[in-house]
UniProtKB/TrEMBL annotation, chain A:
Belongs to the GINS3/PSF3 family. This is DNA replication complex GINS protein PSF3. It comes from Clunio marinus. The lineage of its organism: Eukaryota, Metazoa, Ecdysozoa, Arthropoda, Hexapoda. Its main location: nucleus. PANTHER family: DNA REPLICATION COMPLEX GINS PROTEIN PSF3. One of its GO terms (cellular component) is GINS complex. It is found in: Nucleus. Component of the GINS complex. Keywords: DNA replication, Nucleus.
From TrEMBL, chain B:
This is DNA replication complex GINS protein PSF2. Its main location: nucleus. Gene3D superfamilies: 1.20.58.1020, 3.40.5.50. Pfam families: PSF2_N, Sld5. Keywords: DNA replication, Nucleus.
Amino acid sequence: MKRTYYPNYFSIEDIFVTQEKIPCTAEQKLSKLGFLDPSSSDSIDLQAGQNVELPLWYILQVQTDKSRNQFYKVHIPDIYKSTYGEICRADATAIDLGKLNKYFYEFGRYVAAFDRNGFVGKMIYETCRSRMKYLKDLCNNINSETRNDHKLDYIELQLFEVGSKTNRNLYEWLQKNTINIKTSEMVINHRKRRRALMEAENAVSASQRSQS
Amino acid sequence: MDPEEIEFIGENVSTGIIPNFNFEAIHLISNTIGPFKAGLPMYVPLWLGIHMKKQQKCRLVLPTWIDRDLLEDKKEEEKRDPNFTKMPCENYMVVSKLLFTHAADDIPNIDEVKTLIKDIFDIRQAKLRSTIDLVLIGNSSMESDIKVSFNNLTLLEINTARPFLPFANDLIARLERVYQQHSSNLNDTTQSASHFSSSTY
């Protein structure tokens, strides 16, 4: 993680998040969309009141009005309902976010748009707030043995990795006497030699073409 | 930024040496060093001083703050002040570490000085940690009027908080925006609903 995560059109995480299925009910009869419900694949139309699970990206596209959707009624997934909200309020650090949803915060961010009570937005914000200190302490006390049971969301995991790396580096620097400076990761990823590589490849393909 | 890079930056600090050889000036891109006259004190970058010290070509003149009494005062000041105090050197950890490794025989009371530097660093780290905690959970009740000070932190110390702190703050801020956006939506709808109901009555 070289920079802070911010969702954009090309970010793979954002694509993964929008693949999540979200429970919906058809508000009206939708012609020729029966295939959306795999349990009743024989009917051609989607009847009003039928429950289907649809991917988030589809719902985001078909909805025109943020608060009211004329084709589907979107239900809030169980993990953002009040039972989990209670747990989060009681002790946010105890909850296994990774198990609930790998992209708990990001998914919640999208779900919050369909939540008319404003509960989901509040829940993910407060959960995040109270978990960050715990995460920081986790980074500070890095022990290679206690790695596996961290119960982190995807973004938290990324944060944990950068945070613990910083601490490890500092610790190593304080311990060692002299260290030679290394090429920074960013410079390695620059691939300055790409042009030379491409030219070499072009030359190879050109020679192959001339042979054939 | 890695600690090694910070060390690289810190090594550029000017330090006094007394060379024991004669040599003409060295012309470098950044500046010209020298000429060297045996026995005549002069200023060179720390990296060069250490390099020549290793070859026993000079004696290092210690920075004035590598001193037991001064550091003891500094430690007391650091303890008393709730904020960070100004350090005598911008890269005190780097400079002291290099000097402890390469010029140990030139430093009087080296063990005490070492302990003092370590103490000061630890006090500052503890302060930094509690400040970060304040930033991360301090205003959970949506009041953004907490005030923290990161003044006078040295580069190495800032880098113990980076990049975790800014990244975590970005995430919190992003979710806060979502929260505020939807809670304001909520207020709008309830307001318009109440407006509507009052107009029908």
